UniProtKB/TrEMBL annotation:
Signal peptide: none annotated. It comes from the Bacteria. The lineage of its organism: Bacteria, Bacillati, Bacillota, Bacilli, Lactobacillales. This is 1,3-beta-galactosyl-N-acetylhexosamine phosphorylase. Residues 5-437 form the Lacto-N-biose phosphorylase-like N-terminal TIM barrel domain. One of its GO terms (molecular function) is 1,4-alpha-oligoglucan phosphorylase activity. It comes from Alkalibacterium gilvum. NCBIfam families: 1,3-beta-galactosyl-N-acetylhexosamine phosphorylase. Residues 664-715 form the Lacto-N-biose phosphorylase C-terminal domain. It holds the Pfam family Lact_bio_phlase.
Length: 718
């Protein structure tokens, strides 16, 4: 082993000897518990830091059972119910898991619930419906036959979603269900502070208190089969209560409707263009969470310990890129790393002393079993994350779960030893220096900085058919030699495009928060971007950029992009421009492009559009000039080494910097090079599990040939 440190190891009771062995093999300098495990009493024998998991609002059943009125709450929406007569009965719990939630009858349903005719969108008057508490139904009178109706209703959350997930995944049997409490309530707020003060005194061996996380879980609701029904890693559903609604109205001057939360059953997912009311609500919750979390962090600091936050579970309201995060005063954030984008999501967090990534696979029996080789997943995850690490390294890495499971796989133990050594090697070479950067690119969406590196996510780092086409852009960017910023449409509308930005990217399906929806009907936004491109800026659109049907255009920046989408309205207009240009900077030496789900019916708006890939009667790749600026259109961009190369070329071309493309460049797309001028190093990485040969062009345009072994990282002096 070359050195030691910067690695956190999960451990558990009655596993001290083996823990010591793995500390030596992996060079760990910290140990931690996991959900469902306890630290061994002999842990103080180890020459390591000790992290201990701390649950603020769950795992305290003795308290909450005495104050069940302070359980956390949710707004849920019933199924759509079609009326066939003048009356209709709606079963509230149909499709929900009764062990997780129960309707709230403590607070007057007539005041806090809402019945909506979904065919018209009208709210049904309260005198036309009644609640049957015994069988959890709502009876609606004077309905319109063959209209659909829903009920938006408050519930109490009786079982913490993460505890429920772990309970099911790891077969915890009859273990008591953790009941989450709401720290906005008086007894709960006092209890959480008093208990933490007591806890830090009773756990003197703990060096780092790992808050998992603070108060409110991301929205995760299970169905009647005990499977996930609705999951939104950014969802604010669990922050709702009568208390917060009353406090919101008092501070903001207007009342929220249940519909502001349930949002037609979409629950304001990150894909929805957020309403003003929802943005106000997010801001209100974040301010409260930051204030309360700071008090807990101060208690930890007063006890001489560090405060770490887990970026997951109950993280809602603590968004690290939000305007209140700095006020919390955390020492560290740790999060799960699944790929390059999630690594950057953690590594780029401001206002903390150090960042830590929990690498996959998690040491759970679904991965560590006789029918699976966990080395395969570990290698894939490391390679996808490492390329992002070369741009901005984490300060620490670690793992989670049951250590005894990992110990049973010697090949895995050996492989992780190599990973941890390589991680420390990266840190020692980079040593806080900034890698060479070719340009700055800004990703524009409704969310801006708040969702930095988190666009196109549903459940953390999981694959979804409709979004892998767009998430691939972020994954590619995570390891490319560019600076990445995340800005909102409102920022561009008010302030224009930041001066240091060379290229803007707008990507996503029409109507989503990422493409922009009705934002593009704002003449100031469109005018500012047009002017910026005309003066020399670069614009890249993927999928349905700037898309909203308005004033005879679908792509509101069709003049900039040189393409638009046929909706069937302009079929009477001939579209002559289909000739493909070959040998262009973007399609030179390549014709096998992958656009993922792609986009149908894109056509060139004029002869001046350079069509680079045309088939099936539609444009898939094109470029255009606009004044002094340039644009590139792509029908989609899932992650691959080839598409990463295409995106890199597109950015350099749009920025009028294609002449600099071969400065510090590798010819093999399976490899990448990163340069650290301050330290005098450059690093060549093989992102594949096969041997690769490549030429590397240095800063003077000279080429050197290299042969890299599978997954190899090689350091060379400039």
């Amino acid at each position: 082993m070359k050195n030691k440190g910067r690695v956190t190891l999960p451990t558990e009771q009655n596993f001290l000897k083996e823990t010591k062995e793995l500390i030596d093999k992996w060079g760990a300098d910290a140990v931690r518990d996991s959900d469902g495990t306890e630290l061994d009493k002999g842990i103080i024998e180890l020459d390591t830091k000790v992290y201990k998991t701390y649950f603020v609002a769950r795992g305290h059943n003795d308290f909450i059972k005495k104050h069940l009125e302070e359980m956390q709450q949710l707004y849920l929406m019933s199924k759509f119910n079609t009326a066939t007569d003048k009356t209709l009965e709606v079963a509230l719990m149909d499709g929900y898991y009764e062990e997780q939630i129960e309707p709230d009858y403590r607070h007057d349903p007539k005041k806090w619930w809402e019945v909506i005719d979904r065919t018209t969108g009208d709210v049904v008057a309260t005198e036309n419906w009644s609640v049957n508490k015994e069988d959890h139904t709502v009876n609606i009178n004077n309905v319109e036959p063959f209209h659909e109706y829903t009920v938006s209703f408050l519930v109490y959350m009786k079982w913490d979603p993460t505890h429920m997930y772990n309970h099911i995944t790891n077969d915890w049997g009859d273990a008591p269900h953790d009941i989450p409490f709401d720290v906005r309530q008086p007894n709960s707020q006092a209890y959480m502070k008093d208990y933490l003060k007591k806890w830090v005194k009773e756990n003197p061996e703990t060096d780092v208190v790992r808050f998992t996380t603070f108060f409110y879980h991301f929205t995760l609701v299970f169905n009647d089969l005990a499977k996930e029904k609705f999951v939104d890693w950014f969802g604010y559903g669990s922050t709702v209560s009568v208390s917060v609604l009353e406090a919101f109205e008092k501070e903001k001057g207007y009342a929220l409707r249940p519909e502001d939360i349930v949002d037609q059953g979409y629950y304001n997912t990150a894909f929805r263009v957020p309403s003003k009311a929802y943005l106000d609500y997010i801001d209100f919750v974040q301010a409260f969470v930051a204030e309360q979390a700071k008090e807990l962090v101060d208690i930890v600091h007063d006890a001489g310990k560090e405060a770490m936050m887990f970026l997951g579970d109950n993280w809602i309201g603590t968004e690290p890129y939000g305007k209140y995060f700095e006020k919390i005063g955390l020492d560290s954030v740790v999060g799960s790393v699944g790929d390059g984008a999630t690594l950057r999501m953690i590594a780029d967090i401001p206002h903390i002393k150090y960042s830590e990534g929990r690498f996959l696979p998690y040491f759970f029996p679904d991965t560590f079993n006789e029918n699976n080789n966990p080395v395969t997943e570990a290698n894939e995850r490391w390679l996808s994350s490492r390329r992002a690490m070369m741009r901005n390294p984490l300060d620490r890495i670690g793992y989670g779960g049951y250590l005894h499971l990992a110990y049973e796989f010697p090949e895995f133990v050996e492989y992780i030893g190599k990973v941890t050594d390589e991680f420390r090697d990266i840190i020692s070479h980079v040593d806080g220096s900034k890698p060479l950067t070719k340009l700055k690119v800004a990703f524009v969406s409704s969310w801006g900085k708040l969702r930095s590196w988190q666009y196109f996510m549903v459940s953390h780092a999981l694959w979804y058919k409709q979004i892998y086409t767009y998430q691939g852009i972020l994954e590619s960017l995570s390891g490319l030699p560019v600076d990445v910023d995340f800005i909102s449409f409102d920022e561009i509308k008010e302030n224009g495009v930041p001066e240091d930005v060379s290229v803007i990217i707008n990507a996503g399906d029409a109507g989503t928060a990422f493409s922009g929806g009705d934002h593009w009907t704002d003449p100031k936004l469109v005018g500012n971007i047009r002017k910026w491109v005309h003066n020399g800026g670069g614009f890249i659109g993927v999928g349905e950029p700037s898309a909203v049907s308005h004033q005879g255009r679908y792509f509101q920046l069709a003049d900039v992009l040189g393409v638009d989408k046929e909706l069937g309205f302009s079929l009477s207009s001939n579209k002559y421009f289909t000739e493909t240009t070959t040998g262009h900077f973007l399609n030179r030496n390549r014709t096998d492009f992958d656009y993922g789900e792609s986009m149908k019916n894109i056509y060139a708006t004029s002869k001046d559009t350079t069509i680079l890939d045309y088939s099936d009667g539609e444009v898939h790749l094109s470029s255009s000039t606009y004044g002094k600026g340039r644009s590139v259109y792509m029908a989609g961009l899932p992650f691959s080494v080839e598409n990463t190369r295409l995106l890199y070329k597109a950015m350099m071309y749009a920025a009028n910097k294609e002449d600099e493309y071969t400065t510090w460049h590798v010819t093999n797309a399976n490899c990448e090079v990163n340069v650290y001028p301050e330290k005098g190093w450059y690093a060549i990485i093989n992102n594949s599990m096969e041997q690769q040969k490549t030429d590397v062009y240095n800063g003077e345009g000279k080429a050197l040939s290299y042969t890299l072994e599978p997954s190899e990282l090689r350091w060379e002096r400039i």
